[in-house]
Amino acid sequence: MTKTSYLYDINGAYYEGDETRHYFASSGSEAEFLDRLKRANGSFSVQIKLGETIFAAVDRYRSTPLFYRPDDPQKRIASTARELGRLSQDILKQAPSLALAEYLATGYTTEDSTLHPAIKQIPAGHYLCWEAAKPPRIVEYYSFRPDSTLADDPDILCEQLDDIHNQLARRLIRSLDGRTVLLPLSGGWDSRLIAHILKRQGYEKLICFSYGSPGNPESLLSQRAAQELGYRWIFIPHNRRLWYRSYHSPERNDYFAHSFNYCSCPHTQDWLAVKYLKDKGLIPEDSVFVPGHAADFLEGSHLSPALPELDTISPAYLVNSLIKRHYSLWNWQDGGYRALFTDHLLSEINPPATMNPALAAGILESWDLRERLGKFIFNSLRVYEYYGYQWRLPLMDTALMDFWEAVPLHLRVNRKLWHDYAVRYLPMNVEIFSKPGLSDRLTSRILKSFIGDLTDIRYGRFLDPSNPLDTIKAKVSSLLLKGVNYPDFVDPEASIQMCNLNALQSVLALKEALED
């Protein structure tokens, strides 16, 4: 396993690995520690001791998690939940019903909770202060809150954005120290932006890769983009049989144990591809993976186009938006869960009685970054660590985050400013991958409601392709553990082929943790 930790201070000095701890250890007080946290630009987690007080923190977006037990007399801070205690069925029964229901509905637990009632985590943008003879305190130091303070002028904003891209590219190159970049190049904008800005800076040690069924449309666009930019491109072919064989292995089981942490659905989107690259010796041992995570979020892709048009917004609107977008792994109607989730969300976000669109957007996006991105999207980084590689998140650079926070709301809706920028600064002869049209999506949805998604090879993770009839008959019950009080929206009789993949992986990760 390889841990990634790096940051730039306000003066441009670079710290990596143990050096990041030294950056914080020179703090003389909580106020100084907080000031250094706010000024740090990078991906890190840290724990230090000042006198008799322990301080621990994760970065703005929780790229690397930290866990603790408030009842621990040793005051240990751990990078994995397993270091602090095992999860058993008896222990799970002691957890609030909300924790299990929320984990299965979203793929993660929220706030500082885990499925182990005695083990807590430090949320994104928070730090822990643990004084002698006192309970630990969790303090927020950062929250993504758009404020629309920049000028409403696309020409000026695009120029500023391009300057920031050049700056973060230079910071990325400095941190690489000559190592090879491994870029998961999709058919979309975010990974293509990374390839563009590195090419612009003259960095040639970059390998693009894509994966999936041979000839899939997104990989073909990825290949064309890599060719146009002059970068090497590797394709990793997947099929149902390969998925089944690899998924049902001690190696995959061990990876899940490493990345579950009693709070996050393990991420397997590029697990098989990274495993293949490692096993075949196709990339240098010191390669650094650089995914394009979360740039679309900053640019406004998660905002409802209707939001700026509303005069006033109620707490109910916020809660309904969060539930519809994030509590959706299983098809559930109510059964008391809407009231349970609603009460919890209102307590967590604590909204005023009425809001304007800007304030509402800030509350929604702050939750999104702290919960879904911090605990699900960035949990994908555990794949690279598991196989011994470092990673970088250049598109979560502080300067870029601060810029998008200040862009006027209407220019972020539908990624309006981003698309304007892309036309001006990212000219290419390779189109961007687009999802199927409405009629195709409706047809696919209707077919899936009857027979499941027979075209998605990723279901080979759970279903043996050598027995097609058994595949159709396979039920969710095969992934459940007897004795666990699952929420009733987890239907044991549901066909695996018709369920959400992350819903299936969430129940499997829990089952394996309880059997460990």
CATH level 4 superfamily of the largest domain: HUPs
By CATH reckoning, the class of the largest domain would read: Alpha Beta
- CATH architecture descriptor of the largest domain: 3-Layer(aba) Sandwich
**Total DSSP E strands:** 15
Query: Main sheet?
Result: 5 strands, parallel
Strand content: 5-15%
* SS-based class: alpha/beta
Q: How many helical elements?
A: 21
Distance between the termini: 20 Å
Low-confidence segments:
none
- By oligomeric state, this entry counts as single chain
Using only C-alpha atoms, the radius of gyration works out to 23 Å
State the helicity in percent bands: 40-55%
Domain count, please report it: 4
- In one word, what is the shape? globular
Average pLDDT confidence is 94
CATH topology group of the largest domain: Rossmann fold
List the strand order in the largest sheet: 13-12-11-14-15
